[in-house]
UniProtKB/TrEMBL annotation:
The modification N6-(pyridoxal phosphate)lysine is found at residue 254. Its main location: cytoplasm. Transmembrane segments: none annotated. Its cofactor is pyridoxal 5'-phosphate. May also have succinyldiaminopimelate aminotransferase activity, thus carrying out the corresponding step in lysine biosynthesis. Binds 1 pyridoxal phosphate per subunit. This is Acetylornithine aminotransferase. It is found in: Cytoplasm. Its EC number is 2.6.1.11. Pathway: Amino-acid biosynthesis; L-arginine biosynthesis; N(2)-acetyl-L-ornithine from L-glutamate: step 4/4. InterPro entries: Ac/SucOrn_transaminase_bac (IPR017652), AcOrn/SuccOrn_fam (IPR004636), Aminotrans_3 (IPR005814), Aminotrans_3_PPA_site (IPR049704), Class-III_PLP-dep_AT (IPR050103), PyrdxlP-dep_Trfase (IPR015424), PyrdxlP-dep_Trfase_major (IPR015421), PyrdxlP-dep_Trfase_small (IPR015422).
Length: 405
């Protein structure tokens, strides 16, 4: 049972900057893929805190890693290096294409660092004229001014005055447009292998291969934003492993810390070498608490059994959603990879993804949107068969009510 709460949803309206529109209920505790609110109502978590709680709520190994580290060392300045950070960096390099790692606190910071690395490298090697970053419509790369400008959704960047320059947006998956745009001025192409916030849209293998070839041709860097798709979300440690394309730089965060703030830039030796002492930094990035947690998460999600389970449960969930759609005819398409799945609403229900998420919550399911027309599901990678089945049953009932309303 949850303890009686001395706070209410009304306190948000009184005290917070109104950048969010939170639910009326307040989550109070969680275990595995289940969450209970302050009224002790239970929810199946098919949102994962926006693909963050990769190994579920209060996983014993992660709780132990945090509490053990909390009783040992919390923080030192970046004049020093700690054992958890050193261990985590080695594991990430050994498991990926990368030679170097930079730790930070979030996906936005990871993308900020990745883009700064690309610009810095271009300036050092080619001079000031090579500064163009190519990104894509419906992309999302974070909320700093640089990353929100790079993201291909104007609604997030408009209304804040002049934006950083030399950022070009192209249609996603349009190889001809990409070939026409890349030039000697291009320093980087930044792309999500599977767009999350923009609608759970997968990049085609041909598109990513063309991006790689153009970067090689024009001495630009290929940057993969794997903030959402990384850390086992698609059924491999990182999504690039399933594309046949290797980037020069990769950003990641979200599921990396299971909710404890941490992000990382993974890079090949050459671009990383241009980030010398003083060129970039962070006060909290790579702190021992975050790295101890992230190492425990890494050890869980990098196992073959867990990654195979992600693919298996992803297919179960996608098939179930397709079956629901055959009965209710509310989705134009069910798409995604692993346990990142988007259900694009049919024309009859256009713009009502938020309403569907609200109805799912009433039926005891936590879910997400990916724009106004797409339901997004990103449950813990370790969700049990029982939890998944219950979540599917509740989702089926909610969707049936949604279409009949």
């Amino acid at each position: 049972m949850s303890k009686p709460s001395d706070v209410t949803r009304a306190d948000f309206d009184r005290y917070f900057v109104p950048t969010y529109a939170p639910t009326e209920f307040i989550p109070a505790r969680g275990e595995g893929a289940r969450v209970w609110d302050t009224a002790d109502k239970e929810y199946i978590d098919l949102a994962g805190g926006i693909a963050v709680t990769s190994v579920g709520h209060c996983h014993p190994a992660v709780v132990k890693a945090l509490t053990d580290q909390a009783s040992t060392l919390w923080h030192v300045s970046n004049l020093h290096m700690t054992e958890p950070a050193l261990r985590l960096a080695k594991k990430l390099v050994d498991a990926t294409f990368a030679d170097r790692v930079f730790f930070c606190n979030s996906g936005a910071e990871a993308n900020e660092g990745a883009l700064k690395m690309a610009r810095r490298r271009a300036v050092n090697v080619h001079g000031e004229g090579k500064d163009e970053i190519i990104a894509f419509t419906n992309s999302f790369h974070g909320r700093t001014f640089f990353t929100v400008t790079t993201g291909g959704q104007p609604k997030y960047s408009e209304g804040f005055g002049p934006r950083p320059g030399a950022v070009t947006h192209l249609p996603f998956n349009d190889i001809d447009a990409l070939k026409a745009a890349v030039s000697d001025k291009t320093c980087a192409i930044v792309v999500e292998p599977l767009q999350g916030e923009g609608g759970v849209n997968p990049a085609t293998p041909e598109f990513l291969k063309a991006a790689r070839e153009l970067c090689d041709q024009f001495d630009a860097l290929l940057v993969f934003d794997e903030v959402q798709t990384g850390n086992g979300r698609t059924g491999s440690l990182f999504a690039y492993e399933q594309t046949g394309v290797v980037p020069d730089i990769l950003s990641t965060a979200k599921g990396m810390g299971n909710g404890f703030p941490i992000g990382a830039v993974l890079a090949k030796e050459e671009p990383a070498s241009h980030m010398t002492p003083g060129t970039h930094g962070t006060t909290y990035g790579g702190n021992p608490l975050a790295c101890a947690v992230a190492e425990a998460v890494f050890d869980i999600i990098s196992s073959e059994d867990v990654l195979a389970g992600v693919k298996e449960r992803g297919e179960i969930l996608k098939t179930a959603l397709e079956n629901i759609n055959r009965e209710c005819l509310c989705f134009r398409e069910v798409r995604g990879q692993g346990l990142l799945i988007g259900c694009e609403l049919s024309a009859e229900f256009e713009g009502k993804a938020g309403a569907l998420v609200g109805l799912l919550a009433k039926h005891g399911v936590l879910a997400l949107v990916a724009g106004p027309n797409t339901l997004r599901l990103a449950p813990p990678l370790t969700i049990s068969g029982e939890e998944l089945a219950e979540g599917i049953n509740r989702t089926s009932r909610a969707v049936a009510n949604f279409v009949s309303a």
